[in-house]
């Protein structure tokens, strides 16, 4: 709904024309008729360079933090960056206060936990939505996003959309980049969830210590009210020890000892399509038959249950509902072939995630375990030989291929991965990703599992400067159909 600019900005002692405005925009390319363009410092350029373009596209007003302008439509507010989170929240009528907000951080599992929270809430008759890597909205009908965690200007707009759609709960991935760059400024989460900390994004953070410190920001009282923390993770245990917010922990049974509120698992029995698990908690013992692959998904589900428990849902009801959960697209997602072998697509693109995926699938694998994967170009090169080493250690046969090579040579990346393997490792290099998948499937026998790792839900592949359409899930579905003829 349109907002009167003069009324909106008067509370901040900013004089504005008496006009109706539509949306707030950080990107001049997205400005539409009647919008307010926020010309603030960006990562590389200052937004003031694009004021003329914003007006050409129909902007009604511009807010910026420096310069001198004769145009009354341009308001210069020197302290704009400091007050912008409050300005934006007021523009969208404080949507965060009308929702239960769950923020999820950690290296792996964020998308899955957000989806499981959405599914569990739906099973308990609560309208919910997600924001994250896969997009935003209802988990089965998402709108794509350029970043895992949008800027707070876009977040407030999204949250306002949720409120207008009668959403009551939003589960949101909060990346380490977003925390350092203050993209969640102005939000206060009802619950903050921590999954784990493993090697990733060191090209940005520099060290694991800095990476961990970024994740820990979410658990400060200024950003969240309560915490759900994985104490089977080393960093998680340290985080729980210093957490001042009300705490709920989850993890393996032996790791949860000594905590007041917890949900722990033990006695894991693998089945063809999931697990039988014993759960213990401060409220008693439970049994769960979970229809998901990957032991890490047990932890992801416990995190989702913990978040909803802290929001007031009964623990026993949540555990019962968890038996109906479905896999997240591109996260340990199964494709059953008529030749009696299975392909599994997973987003695993870090050493820890690849190891966990392979170890988990080994528990379900009756025969040989295949691994098809690559590493992205122009990113952390140090993880390449490590991932090759782990693939050799936990898979029977490996096909090294392209991921998103970007500006790097595909074969050179593959060779850096292979450098981590021993000379007698059972591997080969096939630079074409589709050909690599076909090669593994053509070689697979009944009882085999083929893990195709790294792309997961993604629908493009970046080769050089070209962004090619590439949907691995659709490709596997096509191969299942072809091999069923």
Mean pLDDT: 94
The number of helices is 16
Describe the largest sheet: 11 strands, mixed
Helical percentage:
25-40%
Our measurement of the CA-to-CA distance between the termini, rounded to an integer number of angstroms, reads: 53 Å
Strand order of the largest sheet: 10-9-8-11-7-12-13-14-15-16-17
Level-1 CATH class name of the largest domain: Alpha Beta
Rg (C-alpha, Å):
24 Å
Question: Which structural class best describes the helix and strand composition?
Answer: alpha/beta
Which overall shape is indicated by the principal axes computed on the Cα atoms? globular
Low-confidence runs of at least 5 consecutive residues: none
* Number of E-type strands: 25
Report on the architecture of this protein.
Pathway: Cell wall biogenesis; peptidoglycan biosynthesis. Belongs to the MurCDEF family. MurE subfamily. Its EC number is 6.3.2.13. The modification N6-carboxylysine is found at residue 215. This is UDP-N-acetylmuramoyl-L-alanyl-D-glutamate--2,6-diaminopimelate ligase. By secondary structure, the protein is of the alpha/beta class. β13, α9 and β14 (247-252) form a beta-alpha-beta unit. The chain is globular. The longest helix is centred in the middle third of the chain and has 16 residues, at 295-310. The mean pLDDT is 94. The chain has an eleven-stranded mixed sheet with strand order 10-9-8-11-7-12-13-14-15-16-17, with helices on both faces. Strands 18-19-23-20-21-22 form a six-stranded mixed sheet, sandwiched between helices. The chain has a four-stranded parallel sheet with strand order 3-4-5-6. α10 (295-310) runs antiparallel to α11 (315-322). The protein is built from 16 helices and 25 strands. It has three domains: 3-91, MurE/MurF, N-terminal domain (Udp-n-acetylmuramoylalanyl-d-glutamate--2,6- Diaminopimelate Ligase, Chain: A, domain 1); 95-322, Mur-like, catalytic domain (UDP-N-acetylmuramoyl-L-alanine:D-glutamate ligase, 3-Layer(aba) Sandwich), CATH 3.40.1190.10; 333-483, Alpha-Beta Complex (Protein-Tyrosine Phosphatase, Chain A).
